[in-house]
Write a structure and sequence with these properties.
Blueprint lengths: L1 H5 L4 E5 L7 H12 L7 E5 L5 H7 L3 E2 L3 H12 L11
Parallel strand pairs: 1-2, 2-3
The chain binds cobalamin.
């Protein structure tokens, strides 16, 4: 979260390969909410144990099953009309 703020990131992309680290994705979203900066970032999740339903459950903005889908997802999210995240927030 500190790095995303320092870098004026638009997107935070979280990856995990293991079920044991899935909870940390929830923690990142909670940290963003606690710092009142959740709306400044699009948070996307992925990796072997992750699914669309998990992404929905934790309040992530998106999920993709592979790299090409991740690029498409980011293009859609960042291109969304009216969203001005990152540096412009
Ligand atoms: C390579 C590998 C390792 C390597 C990692 C090397 C490295 N430096 O990265 C080494 C040997 C170190 C390793 C260690 C361990 N591993 Co390992 N490992 C794997 C393996 C074989 C492949 C993972 C991989 O790199 N895949 C290639 C990438 C490109 O594919 P991918 O991760 O699926 O990513 C794609 C999509 O998921 C998606 N995606 C991924 N991230 C994101 C993020 C976003 C935002 C989006 C949109 C999309 C997206 O796009 C990617 C491209 O298509 C998997 C088994 C598997 N087939 O997945 C086990 C696996 C992940 N390992 C596992 C385990 C248990 C471990 C260890 C705990 C073993 C141990 N007891 O020490 C340790 C943990 C180490 C650690 N601290 O993290 C388990 C996890 C089980 C679980 N359910 O949690 C797996 C699933 C194997 C198994 N079936 O048991 N491992």
């Amino acid at each position: 979260v500190e790095t995303a703020l320092a870098e004026n990131a638009c997107v935070i992309a979280l990856s995990t390969l293991m079920t044991t680290t899935m909870d940390a994705m929830v923690e990142v979203i909670q940290l963003l909410e606690a710092a009142k900066v959740r709306e400044r970032f699009k948070v996307i999740v992925g990796g072997g144990p992750i699914s669309q339903s998990f992404a929905d459950r934790i309040g992530a903005d998106g999920y993709a099953s592979g790299a090409p889908g991740a690029v498409k997802l980011v293009e859609e999210l960042v291109g969304q009309a009216g969203w001005r995240g990152g540096a412009s927030a």
